[in-house]
Amino acid sequence: MAHKASGSILSQPKEVWAVAFACVVAFMGIGLVDPILPAIASQLHATAGQTELLFTSYLVITGVMMFFTSWISSRVGAKRTLMIGLALIVAFALFAALSGNVESVIGFRGGWGLGNALFISTALATIVGAASGGTGNAIVLYEAALGLGIAIGPLVGGLLGTLSWRGPFFGTAALMAIAFVAIAVLLGTEDKTKRMPTRLSAPFRALANPALAILAAAALFYNIGFFTLLAWTPFALPKGTSAIQLGLIFFGWGLAVAITSVWVAPLLTARVSRTTALSIVLPLLTIDLVVAGLFTGNTVGLIVCVIVGGLLLGILNTVLTESVMEATDLPRSVASSAYSGVRFLGGAVAPPLAAELALLFSPATPYFVAGGSVLIAAILVVAGAKTLSRVNARAETPEAEAESVTIGESL
Question: Where in this chain does the record put each Major facilitator superfamily (MFS) profile domain (predicted)?
Fold first, then answer.
């Protein structure tokens, strides 16, 4: 059902709030392990490289499975896909909590990533289709959920991590179970007559679209910077930094992501085009990462760089997502699957790469390489500005947006 474009972003149907709540909990899983990485390394006798694989296994499976989520959801429906994803996260979070060695936790984080892929890609299309106010409000709401989840995740991880490294995994399982019930109760039954199955190859063929290919490639390099800042910083900070201290640092980082996602990004894109916004903010993130490398060893300086990075990341997340939603005539569920798959694979590369670079060179090197990666993303956007001209055009009506998400067309 399409909703009127007018009204506050807070005036949303109950099913949108149910999915948004589940999104917050799902995105908590990204930063949840951040404060407990040193504790896991110590208590499970793991190296920094092995511990960073907790991110990689999660992100690799999430990225690969993103390519298939539109095929699955177009056959079983959005609600069932969301519920299957949530159920898998609950199960694998529990398995991880009960593990006795780092290899098992790495494996179960991969299963967690499977559930995450089914949920995240479908959630974005569901919110865009059901939210009032069109794509703009929907994406801001989605990115706000992302920012809150990323903010709360490290805080919960830090608080529960003071009790045991297992605590955050048990906590996530409990919250995801609540989200499962919320989706089951509040998300209405969809109209099967509007469901048109997409081809298994649809997301891969979608990447042949020049605009989507540029945005996906830019997001891949951008995500290397994103996850270097998130995953490597706990090891770059002094060894005495506690789980709760790390949780508070990354709570501030995630809060900065949420604030700029919701308020700053819309203000910026109201004044300049989306490609211009990307061309400005990506180089600023490059500078922030380089400065973080220079301040490695300086606790206060590195924390400031983390918070500033969060402010920039919030803008970039929103603008990139809006750009993908407007870049093509492809069904949004397909475009989201293709873009998200490439984006998460970029994130999967960052944590082990950072650990290896630090081992071979210095703890500052991962930040310098991440800055160079984000600069490549900026160059791709600038070089492809003409191809991306459509993302700067006026958005279509909410009715057309909802139709493109819920009905779509086969490729």
Answer: 15-389
